[in-house]
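Quick one: structure tokens for this chain, please?
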Amino acid sequence: MPETAGTLRGNAELKALAYSQAGLAIASDGGLEVPALGQAWDPVLTRRSGQARLRELSRGLVDSRLIWREAVAIAENGRLLGSWEEAGTTGVLARQPWPAPRVFWVWDIFFFPELGKTWAQLSPEERQQVDLTWTRLRATIVATFRVSFT
């Protein structure tokens, strides 16, 4: 499915709506923010520009902080039920040279100094510890759909 919206949330909504024609659908879209790069790096387009472009842009970068942003949308039968966007997972760019992209190129370059590991090297328990973006999204979505019957 083409990601043609100008925002992560918009892309998640487009995907959820498209896939919801047959029933309930949940879709997401995420992006890597590199604050020091400003407008030169667009988190919405990271999949299209990827690791090679970031390698170019980050040469000589002093501030290598990273933030993961994720959007989730839920739709049913062509009707959007809700969408949310959160950020919070933070780290820094791993030192280069970076390995060739494998499953998902961000996993090998998103480094957590407090653990001394990249995302790809983290255990499931460590991932839960540092993954604030999905923790926040989960809490928001659960709170949105929690219904009181009292």
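Helices lie at 8-19, 46-57, 124-130, 132-145.
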